[in-house]
Amino acid sequence: LLIFMSKIETLDNFLGGKLKIYQLQKGFRAGHDSVLLASAIKAIEGDSCLELGFGTGVVSLCLAKRIPNLDIVGIENDIEMLKISKKNIELNNFKKNIKVFAGDIEGKIENYQFIKRQSFDQIYANPPYFVEENISEPSNKNKKVANIGNKKTFDLWLKKALTFSKSGGTITFINHIQNLPEMLFLFSKKLGDIKVTLIFPKKDKKASRFIISGVRDSKKPLKFNQGLILANKDGKIPKKIDNLLRNGIGFNH
User: Fold this and answer.
1) What are phi and psi for residue 110, nearest 5 degrees?
2) For labelling alongside 66, which of 20, 134, 142, 245 has CA 20 to 30 A away?
3) Mean of the per-residue pLDDT values of the chain
4) Mean pLDDT, residues 185-191 taken together
């Protein structure tokens, strides 16, 4: 029964119902992070995009909904997730825009015969991360894989992104605030025009997430943007955030 239970799927609304997404009831579930990441990607019509760690496809589907005629490739190593994401692509009518492949982001580059090096305009991901305070919490296996990286995770994910990014291509990651120093260090070694946007769960609360992007071969300096505050003190969602989560509009990251 337990095995069966973990496979139960829910059909969830994203972007105010403009997208319908199947997700596992127990396990990693996409939320605000995925929608915010999609909104931060400055793609333009016709761009070729690569998502590392495709999951159920929420980020790429939100992006494809906002910007027409993108050519998107997703890579995912969890077979269960691959099945669900293919179903989601079909359900939302993006079969001609989005293709997803099985692949281990931390595996050998030789295994990536299905995509060309240095060929993508936009590469984006929510890499798995390890957060100190969660160390003792037992967790669902599927969720664990999505959430817990090891010490080399960010380095390996960024290396893959750099391998497939065009010169002038943009790499955009979202992650837990605790990992900002490491991510900033790694991005600064390899990329220019770095932009950082902090995400605050509520006004007067500390930032919990950040979005970071960098441009390959750019010499432009680092810039911190105005942060995103997801809720006012009274818990109400600000108009800008509501518009972003409901309509998936791009914001100035």
Assistant:
1) -65, -20
2) 142
3) 90
4) 97
Predicted local confidence at residue 148, as pLDDT = 56
User: Which distant-in-sequence residues (6+ apart) come within 8 Å of 114 by Cβ?
Assistant: 73, 101, 103
User: CA-to-CA distance for 49 and 73, rounded, in angstroms?
Assistant: 6
| Strands 98-102 vs 71-76: parallel, antiparallel or unpaired | parallel
Distance between first and last Cα of the chain: 45
Report how far residue 153's alpha carbon sits from residue 171's, in angstroms, rounded to the nearest whole number: 16
Signed CA dihedral, 32, 33, 35, 40: sign only: positive
Q: Give the integer Cα–Cα distance in Å for 77 and 182.
A: 24
Q: Who contacts 186 (Cβ-Cβ below 8 Å, separation ≥6)?
A: 154, 155, 158
Q: How confident is the model at residue 2 (pLDDT cuts 50, 70, 90)?
A: very low
Output the 3-class SS for 104-158. CCCCCHHHCCCCCCCCEEEEEECCCCCCHHHCCCCCCHHHHHHHCCCCCHHHHHH
- pLDDT value at 141 more than 70: no
Q: Where are the beta strands (DSSP E) in 25-88?
A: 48-52, 71-76
Token pair recorded at residue 241: 């955030």
Q: Write out the H or E segment, with its range, that includes residue 13.
A: strand 9-14
CB 127 within 8 A of CB 173: yes
